[in-house]
Design goal:
With 297 residues, the protein is α/β, with parallel strands linked by helices. The protein has a single domain, classed as TIM Barrel. It is 45% helix and 12% strand. An eight-stranded parallel barrel has the order 1-2-3-4-5-6-7-8, surrounded by six helices. Helix 1 crosses helix 2 and helix 11 packs across helix 12. The radius of gyration is 18 Å and the shape is globular. The chain starts with 6 loop residues before the first strand and ends in a 10-residue tail after the last helix.
Length: 297
């Protein structure tokens, strides 16, 4: 399996002035992220506004970004759904275009049981040769993937890890201690990255890395190399920026920030909207206090 990376960016989807996907800008952003600390990219995840993208747009994003990136980093396709059949077919389609892995969100809205969740992910994993990463984000899906279910799913060979955004340290500890030895746990919340690394997590699937990727990479690898003091200093320094990027629903703040620094990604698609005046001022004021790693041309 290709190394997917300890620092993966959950990439925004750029839109043009008419609200259409800007594929050229998406490729530029992908390359810029890989040049500023990221080792991989999640395309069409939560931050990529997957709820408002149609499958044709997503498949074209997977295809064009993978071609642009080549071997510079991993491309992970967000192919999850609250329909098992839909997620299964979409994952097969992503595999055909050559992505490196898929990200499978916990089914939302229909509130399956833990047995239903297990069978859902098992069916998708068995339909593909792609490495599969489960994405647990109960703040958005309502349903939490229990530690016991994640541990059970870790026995399926090509379910290689989980993006844990529950914020539940006890649950995350159970997963890390109970899953198979090579099962990888990525933090799904930037603010949780260092605490989760201290428990044995592998890395982070990040939003803040759009702006401070090199600094987050330095934090992660400082910890991995045993320099916990340096890692803690970077964590403490970046926390105000991380917090402001979630002042309202992601990805509205990070898109606003990217536009502000000169990397045009357009507005979010409705029903998401740009930050209000107060939030925009907060983002702008906070950004001025930080070094931005993303190359802007």
């Amino acid at each position: 399996m290709k190394e997917l990376g300890r620092l993966i960016t959950a990439m925004v989807t750029p839109f043009d002035k008419n609200g259409e996907v800007d594929y050229e800008q998406a490729k530029k952003l992908a390359l810029a992220l890989l040049a500023s600390g990221s080792e991989g990219l999640v395309i069409a995840g939560t931050t990529g506004e997957s709820p408002t993208l149609i499958h044709e747009e997503e498949l074209r994003l997977f295809t064009e970004i993978k071609k642009a990136v080549g071997n510079k980093g991993s491309v992970i396709a967000g192919t999850g759904s609250n329909s098992t059949a839909e997620a299964l077919e979409f994952t097969k389609g992503a595999e055909k275009v050559g992505v490196d892995a898929c990200l499978l969100v916990v089914p939302y809205y229909n509130k399956p049981t833990q047995d239903g969740l297990y069978q859902h992910f098992k069916a998708i994993a068995e339909s593909t040769s792609l490495p599969c990463i489960i994405y647990n984000v109960p703040s958005r899906t309502v349903t939490n993937l229990a530690a016991e279910t994640t541990i059970k799913l870790s026995r399926i060979p090509n379910i290689i890890g989980v993006k844990e955004a529950s914020g539940d340290i006890e649950q995350i500890t159970k997963i890390i201690s109970g899953a198979r030895e090579d099962f990888l746990v990525w933090s799904g919340n930037d603010s949780d990255t260092l605490p989760m690394l201290s428990l044995g997590a592998y890395g982070v699937i990040s939003v803040a890395s759009h702006l401070v990727g090199k600094q987050i990479s330095e934090m992660v690898y400082s910890f991995v190399k045993g320099n916990t003091k340096k890692a803690a200093e970077i964590h403490q320094h970046l926390l105000p920026l991380v917090n402001v990027l979630f002042a309202i629903s992601n990805p509205s703040p990070v898109k606003y920030a990217l536009n502000l620094i000169g990397f045009d990604v357009g507005k979010p698609r409705s029903p998401l909207y740009e930050p209000d005046e107060k939030t925009a001022a907060l983002i702008k004021g906070t950004l001025q206090k930080f070094k931005i790693d993303l190359p802007v041309k």
